[in-house]
Amino acid sequence: MSDAQSKLQRLEDAGILEQKQFSSDEIALVATITDDEIDVLVRLRQKLGPPSADKNHIRPNFIV
Amino acid sequence: MDRVTELTEGQGLPGNADVAFPAQPGAALWVKIVLAQGLLNTAAQHFWSQGSLPRLFPSFLLELYSVVRCSVPLMTEAYRRASELGKTDRLAARTAAYLEQHIAEESNHDEWLLNDLVASGMDRAAVLRQSPSASVARLVGAQYCWIRHAHPAALFGYLAVIEGNPPLAEHLNEIQLLTGYPPESFRCLHLHAADDIEHLRELRETVTELPLSAGDAALISTSAFATLQGVISIFEDLTARQRTSRG
Fold this sequence. Notes:
The structure holds two protein chains of two kinds. Chain A has helices spanning about 5-15, 25-30, 35-50. By secondary structure, chain A is an all-alpha fold. The radius of gyration of chain A is 13 Å and the shape is globular. By secondary structure, chain B is an all-alpha fold. Helix content of chain B is about 75%, strand content about 0%. Chain B has helices spanning about 5-10, 25-50, 55-85, 90-105, 110-120, 125-130, 135-150, 155-160, 170-180, 185-210, 215-245. In chain B, helix 7 (about 135-150) runs antiparallel to helix 11 and helix 8 (about 155-160) packs across helix 11 (about 215-245).
């Protein structure tokens, strides 16, 4: 498994992205994410839990 | 459908369905920002799905005001530093050009939000006397550190994460119904629901075309991830405070 595939797999296993939705060009971009950055994303996903499919309309976050 | 179109049509991350990432330099950075935006959206989903929205909403608006009040001064500081560096630094010159326009777009939004707080029953003078919370100070203060001691382009990470999840009119209407607050409490949020889609598009175009070194990209990425964690902390603090006050 290439480095890019390995990173994609980690992100997919953590529920951060779905690999099948990425083109080869996009996979190459994901390969630039460092292991430390993936660690942060995975930790936050574990802390937050999965997104709710029926709550996609919920989005008043902070504004500038 | 790309991420901006997703937002326009009210679709959410993750898993980033059909996201199309641009191919210019800086696109790799934007991938990280999109992933961060998706996590922030999950945090917002949890926050807004709690009971007691009538109690949570004014606290959210107050904390939001603390952040928005800091925005133009923060961008102005970054603009000032970028303008100084821009004589010999292409990234700084590009940063200054973007911020000059964005400062004009965001000016007076704190006043709009203050008016919405007053419409929600809060005292204007009391709101103005409120100091930013520790969470807001950490969120904004980190940017001052990077602007002054690293590079003002760091602010792109902050802006991209914060503007990456603009309010949606449908959900604002739902909150209004659930909380009973008047439409005047939501004017600033509704205006951002309309405007921030375009701001995000401009920001993505700018970021993906920035003349970035590996170190610059890492700095902006660090800023984006710190912003993500900072906003999640604010949501957590608001929830914890509401639980404490409920006893």
